[in-house]
Amino acid sequence: MQSKENILTCTEEVRVRFNETDPLGIVWHGHYIVYFEDGREAFGRQHGLTYLDIQNAGFVTPIVKSTCEHFLPLKYGETFRIVTTFVNSRSAKLIYTYELFNKDNQLVCSGETIQVFLDSNGTLCLYNPGFFQAWKDKMGL
Predict the structure, then answer these.
(1) With contact defined as beta carbons under 8 Å apart, do 86 and 95 qualify?
(2) pLDDT digit string, tens, across residues 65-103
(3) What pTM was computed for the model?
(4) DSSP assignment of the chain, as one string?
């Protein structure tokens, strides 16, 4: 559980592209996971925890769990906001939650992803890698 003072979020605006829609002009459900990726990328750039930072430290972070709940459709040409929040955990994991809001500020979709750390040998890290713990300390987590 984290206190309100150290919750890290990022908001990114995205426009629905034609190739993300089905014949009805509605976003195909599988693209929401890609939108979550857009949110993680934006979060990393804003808060100094990009995939390149992780890779340069000698680690990769595969997703081991993802959830996605759909409430309203998005359509071709619409813009929407992705709010990505880092969920602090004592475990060696990256946990993010996502909320997608349409132009009317209605919740369209929510979800979560969990990533683990693997070292350069592909071994699961049971403790926070040093660079990640240093980042958490810097962020007050």
Answers:
(1) yes
(2) 999 999 999 999 999 999 999 999 999 999 999 999 999
(3) 0.93
(4) ---GGG-EEEEEEEE--GGGB-TTSBBPTTHHHHHHHHHHHHHHHHHT--HHHHHHTT-B--EEEEEEEE-S--BTT-EEEEEEEEE--SSSEEEEEEEEE-TT--EEEEEEEEEE-B-TT-PBPSS--HHHHHHHHHHT-
Close Cβ partners of 13 (under 8 Å, ≥ 6 residues apart): 79, 80, 81, 82
Q: What is the largest CA-CA distance in the chain?
A: 48
Token match 């132009």: residue? Answer: 103
5 CB burial (10 A radius; 0-12, 13-18, 19+): exposed
Q: What's the confidence (pLDDT) of residue 6?
A: 80
Which amino acid, one-letter code, is at 99? E
Tens of pLDDT, residue by residue over 15-58, are 999 999 999 999 999 999 999 999 999 999 999 999 999 999 99
